């Protein structure tokens, strides 16, 4: 049997260097007053013994506290951002042992003023790092400029602001997800017309769905340039208005069979189709919200392109914690989640 090598400790280094354990600790962490002679002895012994400090033990013993704030949109049960919060909460539980306090600050994703107010509150009580869902492009750019000035690292989830010196990004490859959505919608068919349904948002809204839409149109130009593409806006929280809008749309375009939404609210359209008995249409949507999953199981939604939303929140917080605690950068700047295709036939195994 091979003999197991004994782990070298601070006590071993102190004994051979003929100094106190406190002196060794001060040399390792470069703090406090240490004579040059003692410092040289400690460094020499460390090199001889191959000593490596136990960073986890040091952190557990440390009284240093860290604060991270996740800045994300408000959510109700079953919505996209609730899933993101689950991942954030999971990371918060894991890193609480290391004195990391992770808080969530929410804003109304349809209100510029709400986002501006939230960022002002955050800057008044500065954390050590920030996880950001950049719902408003110009306001986010202004906000992260202030974070950079103050030396506060930040990471993005869901979408990102390019060239803003962020630590990491976790989200779906947006252009490719739109391209994939088009392929699922029309595939090898030769439709004469398709319809895209969008949600009304403020003009400064981040470009998540815009980039996805670009991918969709790129596919259609390449493979179906003759196809007519209609675009219709819906309201995020007004079912009465949406029913009126959709009634008019399908009266005007009764032959449209291929439908797609670029956001997580495919259930708005699916609920209408179910109510009206339009069971022969192909509907493609995004994200595994409870309402979307229910309509997928019923066959009203044909395909859902999903991403690991919880993983985004978890990995985003983890990258910030690793930076603060271990001075460790993430392996990649942009970390793209896998795109999973769900149908009524495989959703039960997901």
Automatic annotation (TrEMBL):
<dbReference type="GO" id="GO:0003700">
    <property type="term" value="F:DNA-binding transcription factor activity"/>
</dbReference>
<keyword id="KW-0238">DNA-binding</keyword>
<dbReference type="InterPro" id="IPR025997">
    <property type="entry name" value="SBP_2_dom"/>
</dbReference>
<dbReference type="InterPro" id="IPR010982">
    <property type="entry name" value="Lambda_DNA-bd_dom_sf"/>
</dbReference>
<protein>
    <submittedName>
        <fullName>LacI family DNA-binding transcriptional regulator</fullName>
    </submittedName>
</protein>
<dbReference type="Pfam" id="PF13407">
    <property type="entry name" value="Peripla_BP_4"/>
</dbReference>
<keyword id="KW-0804">Transcription</keyword>
<dbReference type="InterPro" id="IPR000843">
    <property type="entry name" value="HTH_LacI"/>
</dbReference>
<keyword id="KW-0805">Transcription regulation</keyword>
<feature type="domain" description="HTH lacI-type">
    <location>
        <begin position="8"/>
        <end position="62"/>
    </location>
</feature>
<dbReference type="InterPro" id="IPR028082">
    <property type="entry name" value="Peripla_BP_I"/>
</dbReference>
<dbReference type="Pfam" id="PF00356">
    <property type="entry name" value="LacI"/>
</dbReference>
<dbReference type="GO" id="GO:0000976">
    <property type="term" value="F:transcription cis-regulatory region binding"/>
</dbReference>
């Amino acid at each position: 049997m091979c003999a197991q090598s004994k782990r070298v400790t601070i006590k071993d280094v102190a004994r051979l260097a003929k100094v106190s354990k406190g002196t060794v600790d001060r040399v390792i962490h470069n703090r406090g007053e240490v004579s040059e002679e003692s410092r040289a002895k400690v460094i020499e012994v460390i090199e001889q013994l191959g000593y490596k400090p136990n960073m986890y033990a040091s952190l557990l013993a440390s009284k240093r506290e860290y604060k991270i704030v996740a800045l994300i949109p408000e959510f109700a049960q079953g919505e996209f951002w609730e899933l993101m919060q689950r991942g954030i909460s999971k990371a918060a539980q894991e890193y609480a042992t290391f004195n990391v306090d992770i808080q969530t600050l929410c804003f109304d994703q349809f209100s510029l003023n709400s986002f501006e107010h939230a960022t002002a509150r955050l800057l008044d009580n500065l954390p050590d790092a920030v996880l950001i869902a950049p719902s408003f492009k110009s306001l986010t750019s202004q906000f992260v400029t202030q974070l950079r000035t103050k030396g506060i690292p930040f990471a993005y989830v869901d979408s990102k602001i390019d060239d803003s010196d962020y630590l990491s990004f976790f989200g779906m490859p947006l252009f490719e997800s739109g391209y994939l959505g088009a392929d699922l919608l029309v595939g090898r068919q030769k439709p004469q017309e398709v319809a895209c349904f969008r949600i009304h948002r403020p003009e400064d809204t981040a470009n998540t769905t815009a980039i996805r839409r670009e991918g969709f149109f790129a596919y259609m130009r390449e493979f179906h340039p003759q196809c007519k593409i209609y675009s219709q806006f819906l309201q995020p929280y007004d079912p009465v208005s949406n029913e009126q809008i959709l009634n008019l749309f399908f009266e005007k375009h009764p032959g449209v069979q291929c439908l797609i939404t670029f956001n997580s609210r495919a259930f708005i359209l699916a609920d209408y189709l179910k109510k009206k008995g339009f069971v022969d249409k192909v509907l493609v949507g995004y994200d595994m919200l409870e309402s979307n999953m229910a309509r997928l199981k019923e066959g009203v939604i044909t395909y859902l392109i999903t991403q690991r939303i919880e993983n985004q929140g978890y990995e985003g917080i983890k990258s910030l914690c690793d930076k603060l605690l271990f001075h460790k950068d993430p392996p990649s700047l942009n970390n793209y989640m896998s795109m999973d295709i769900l149908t009524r036939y495989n959703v039960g195994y997901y």
